[in-house]
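seq:
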Amino acid sequence: MRNKQWTTFYLPLVLFGAAHVIIFRFVFGAGNDVLFQQASAVFNGQLPYRDFLLEYPPLTLAVLLPPRLFGADTWLYGRAFSYEMLALDLGILVLLAATARRMRLSPWQALGAYTVALLALGSLAAQRYDLWPALLVAASFFCFVRGNHTLSWFFLALGVTTKLYPAMLAPLLALYQLKRRDFRGLARGVTAFTAATAVIVLPWVILSPEGFWVSVQ
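struct:
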């Protein structure tokens, strides 16, 4: 049983993980002047939405700011940011493999399909923050297939407050729970989604409603 688990779960994780490290280090280019400037503005004491236009939802700051600690110019920031995206990418690999195993699908196929999609993105995967909402969506679906629907809705809310597209996945989760007549579970999930979104978004709306609305537009 352990040998089967090694070949069907851990081995693909190790091999694909090593491949992704090579891809990020030697294939993908790094650097994003826009993200560097916005992170630098925060480090200089400016507030997003009020003092400058942050073009993204608030939880984006969770990945925009840390690389600025290691990079005082565009190149250093871009390199630190690419390593941060690599860490998120490896997290996605683990979640996809675990989700596939839970659904009795092949982790090899799941990780292979994801790797093809990653290569199709090219250097954008290391230069933009899209792997952050992707990780949150992957966490949401992993929780959902494990039956922890409330936590799934919570992670989906984090995804929405990072980039708006995860909101399109909410009807899929809701339809599944409605089909199973899990009305209480759906109510708890929607409550968790709403509460998490409000906690993250409302402070910025109160701080600068006009600036936040311009960002949404």
